[in-house]
Amino acid sequence: MSAAKRLIPLLDRVLVEKIVAPTKTAGGILLPESSAAKINQGTVLAVGPGRRSLNGDIVPVSVKEGDKVLLPEYGGTSVKLEDSEYVCWEMAYIIFRDEELLGVLKD
């Protein structure tokens, strides 16, 4: 089981794997960081059960696992997860509150 699948967000939080900009071209040329485009998209890996309303009901999150989402430029909490096959710290995992996500991208 991957490290991301072992993390279950609480309440209305959503675990997102951010899409990382490519660091080299198809021909193998390395791109400088200054030319890398900012990509504000990600894939939902896990969702919490939802938040509680004032009367105690659960309000489910508005996205589901596998959704492609539009992310805010700032915000969220970066999470380092250890991969089980080999020790490698991934920086592309971010936890957002459901209300912080800007939208769902349809194919």
Automatic annotation (TrEMBL):
Protein name: Protein groES
HAMAP family: CH10 (MF_00580)
Keyword Transferase: no
Keywords annotated in UniProt: Chaperone
Family membership noted in the UniProt record: Belongs to the GroES chaperonin family.
Classification via SUPFAM superfamilies: GroES-like (SSF50129)
Main function: Seems to function only as a co-chaperone, along with cpn60, and in certain cases is essential for the discharge of biologically active proteins from cpn60.
Molecular function per GO: ATP binding; metal ion binding; protein folding chaperone; protein-folding chaperone binding; unfolded protein binding
